[in-house]
Specification:
It comes from Georhizobium profundi. The protein is mainly alpha-helical and 149 residues long. The protein has six helices and two strands, in the order αααββααα.
Length: 149
């Protein structure tokens, strides 16, 4: 008979579990949208334009996958596609890209302040930025600001 591992902490209430898993599932749904919008902003800032082929290359996905997501982003009012001219962010898309970029920078700065190497901090921040709450992000900001003083 297998032994049941003892948990260090008691199991949380079901409502707490539901809330945390609901938030995580919602964050996963928005994560891809945020990644695309952030990448479009980065490509425009770097090269003056964002093209479907560049997005596919940087995300490591096929162009049809990118085309499908771009249609969704356009339908959501985050981008505008112009034939032969590439992809452009709407005002709403640009605002989202700025929020995502700022979250990424805060998380990455926090990880660096903990002594995490630059490359690992950048990679880890890419995942964490989509799941961190406003409260936690605020604590990260305060920690980094206090450390920098």
């Amino acid at each position: 008979m297998a032994r049941k591992a003892k948990s260090a902490e008691p199991l949380v209430e079901p409502e707490v579990h539901v809330a945390s898993f609901r938030q995580t599932r919602n964050n996963r749904r928005t994560e891809i949208i945020e990644d695309y919008v952030e990448l479009v902003a980065d490509l425009i800032a770097d090269a003056g334009e964002a093209r479907q082929i560049d997005i596919a290359r940087r995300l490591g996905v096929a162009q049809p996958t990118v085309a499908k997501m771009l249609k969704r982003l356009a339908a959501d009012g985050l981008i505008v596609q112009r034939p032969y001219r590439g992809i452009f962010l709407t005002e709403e898309g640009n605002a989202l890209a700025l929020r995502v970029r700022e979250r990424h920078q805060v998380v990455e700065s926090f990880l660096r302040a903990l002594g995490i190497g630059e490359d690992i901090a950048r990679i880890d921040a890419e995942g964490i930025e989509h799941h961190v709450s406003d409260e936690t992000l605020s604590a990260f900001r305060k920690f980094v600001a206090a450390r920098d003083q």
